[in-house]
Amino acid sequence: MIVKATLEDIPALNKLVNSAYRGDSSRKGWTTEADLLDGTRTNEQALKEFFAKPDSTILNISMVRSSSAVCD
Prior knowledge:
It is built from 2 helices and 2 strands, in the order βααβ. The protein has helices spanning 10-21, 44-52; strands at 2-4, 59-61.
């Protein structure tokens, strides 16, 4: 199911984005930046600011046993 993400989703979205792009866990996927950059990709404050923009939408895709994907 695809639904519009809410402010309540920010902690999970933050964790998902940072694990997909940075750190050791990101090396399991093809999107890793772990060897190029240090630090986090985003944080909860940046996501809150993104949500505040009237022309921005984050979609939350829920699968059978997993959840959260981000589209910009």
